[in-house]
Amino acid sequence: MKKASTFLLGAVVGITLTAGTTIGAANYLKATPKKVSIVVGSNQNSVEAMNVQNKLYVPVRDAGDSFGYSVSGVTSTTVTFAEGKTATTNSVGTGTTDKNTTTPSKTEGEYVEGLHDKYGTNGKLDAEKVKAAIAAGEISVNAQDKGTGNSLLHYVVLENNFAVYSVIKVNALNVNLQNGELQTPLILSVIHENGFYEGELTNYYKSDATIKDNSGKQAIDYSKPNSSTYINLKFYMM
């Protein structure tokens, strides 16, 4: 698959284009839908964005789709697109599966002894091992490590592991599983300031942002006041 240009990410869900001054303290958030034009080479397309407190939020997947690109790689600062769109899912882990998928449809946590070590290589989950194990029915996309409680998706966020994410992002994925500290993947994405997965978990999987960990904190409680992440989650939870 031919790779397209890469786009730098701001510290926020998707791509953030700052259009104003630093945000001050506010008692409410005002969001205004707005169409923006994005130019890639000689091509120009318009996408739906949201203006919140003078900051413009553009969903990274929508921006890519508008040019016929799909997300093919993610790092802490860059999202790489490739030619050709891929199907997306809007599932919240309710057990609904696509009729054409052969992936096990278990949406509840399935504890596996030594999950990370067994399906990892050099201290990181191995996408090929995970893919083979799921296909063989050894584990489901919602498998959790018995020791830590971390699910495959927790590890995706912790390791910024897009290769494994590409394997498990199916309709049966439960994005609200909690690990041993009762933290969800969304909470971890905020703690580790991973804007891409924060965006995926809120914009596409509709993760439950009200879930609290064993410290009594929600995802938003781990964000810096008036930061891009805080504003996004505040708006998301309205």
TrEMBL record:
Q: Which domain of life is it from?
A: Bacteria
What this protein is called in its record is: Copper amine oxidase-like N-terminal domain-containing protein
